[in-house]
Amino acid sequence: MAETVRLGIDVACVAEHQASCADGAGEFLWSGWRFRTTPADLERLWAKVPAGAEVTVILEPTRNALGAVGGVAAGQGGR
Fold first, then answer.
1. What is the value of pTM for the model shown?
2. 5-46 pLDDT per residue, tens
3. Separation between Cα atoms, residue 24 and residue 35, nearest integer Å
4. How far is residue 53 from each of residues 10, 48, 49, 74, measured CA to CA in Å?
5. Where along the chain do its domains lie?
6. Distance (Å, whole) CA 79 – CA 76
7. Interatomic CA distance for residues 60 and 65, integer angstroms
8. How far is CA 75 from its chain centroid?
9. Are 56 and 77 a contacting pair, CB within 8 Å?
10. What is the greatest pairwise CA distance in the chain?
């Protein structure tokens, strides 16, 4: 059975976005990771998620900045 994790992302318009990841018990695997909406940063973000995990993505959107981050998460299999 695949590990379940939750990836929380505070999406920003001007500043860097911030992400944290918790396991199924709610324990942080990592937190406070800052990134920009660039292909390289988005790839690095997804690489931090445990391989093969079932991922639930929780986004706190800020205006139209949500689209790119949410699209990548959905493309990687996030729900």
1. 0.78
2. 999 999 887 889 999 999 999 999 999 999 998 999 999 999
3. 24
4. 21, 11, 7, 14
5. 4-75
6. 9
7. 10
8. 12
9. no
10. 39
